[in-house]
Design brief:
Elements lengths: L12 H14 L4 H21 L23 H40 L3 H33 L1
Length: 151
């Protein structure tokens, strides 16, 4: 048996039902039509919600394999491919170096016209580049040594 708690002892549905009836009577001539539409919509929404589930199976990822070379490629074809790519990379670096040199000339002209000591700035930048290049060479050497040890 349900016993009344402090909350439920103050609840009286007759007052709420009386208010609903009085509002319904004052609603006007379209009250039945509006009530039926509201009831149908409410029923429809709850019917849809009842068929839905929050549990969904995990969708497995689609794995796409990209084959950029044929599986039957020979060692000679692989070496030719590597050599060709290295040549393209070297050509790109040469073009980039030429463009960088031209841009450096332009910026030096602007800096000189602005009153900066461009020779000092260039010497500092060259020293920084040499330092980075030496660091990269040391890392490459260390990596190659590790590979030789692993073999």
């Amino acid at each position: 048996m349900l016993r009344k708690t402090n909350y439920w002892k103050n609840v009286n549905p007759t007052g709420a039902l009386g208010d609903l009836i009085s509002v319904f009577r004052e609603a006007g001539p379209g009250r039945w039509r509006n009530s039926l539409i509201a009831g149908a919509l409410t029923f429809g929404v709850f019917s849809i919600m009842a068929t839905q589930s929050w549990k969904m199976e995990r969708k497995l990822p689609d794995v796409t394999y990209i084959n950029s070379w044929p599986a039957d490629r020979t060692e000679a074809e692989t070496r030719d491919f590597i050599i060709k790519n290295q040549q393209e990379k070297d050509d790109l670096q040469k073009r980039q170096a030429a463009a960088d040199a031209e841009a450096q000339k332009l910026w030096m002209a602007v800096g000189q016209a602005s009153g900066f000591d461009v020779k000092k700035m260039k010497a500092e930048a060259d020293a920084e580049k040499a330092k980075e290049k030496a660091k990269a060479a040391a890392e490459t050497k260390q990596t190659l040594e590790q590979v030789k040890i692993a073999e």
